[in-house]
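Project standup — Tuesday

K.O.: blocked on the structure for the chain from last sprint. Re-posting the sequence here as requested.
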Amino acid sequence: MSLAHAVLTSLLEKSSSGYDLARRFDKSIGYFWHATHQQIYRELARMDAAGWLESFVPPDAGKTRKKHYRVLDAGRAELARWTHEPAEPMDLRDTITLKLRADAVLGEVDLVPELRRHLALHQERLVKYRDIEARDFPAGKALTRAQAIQHLILKKGIRYEEAELAWGREMLTLLCATRSPSR
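H.V.: unblocked you, prediction finished:
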């Protein structure tokens, strides 16, 4: 997946300024496709030059004169073209897993504190995802097709965090059971 396609998707959901796009991105697509604000601004400039979107200053911009971005037909066509490309499964680059592999080779390096931190971060994200689900997808609420797709994407994130927590707890049990007595 490319950042351009993530930005096009987000702008089709809602035209906005680069700043507002970057903030929204952090709270939605950014959960599964990370980009810095600087990367997003560079991509906006590139896509503007490519004719995929246009920038404009809305009449209500006031003194800020903040540029907003809107997807053009060429950008919509590019996004549609890209959706038909084959997608490979996610490439996993997980630092804690690599550290644990190093522990297995080096001998005990005491990763219990790091694993506990890892578990706390996944628990925080799971709580955040469940809060979003309760707010945006209450039980019994009829959903449009687009909302149902968004809900299932959120459920993927929830299931991922639940799996990470289950795996992490199992690993923590192993590490604590095999810890040398001096630690």
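K.O.: great, moving the ticket to review. The longest strand covers residues 53-56. The longest helix spans residues 145-177.
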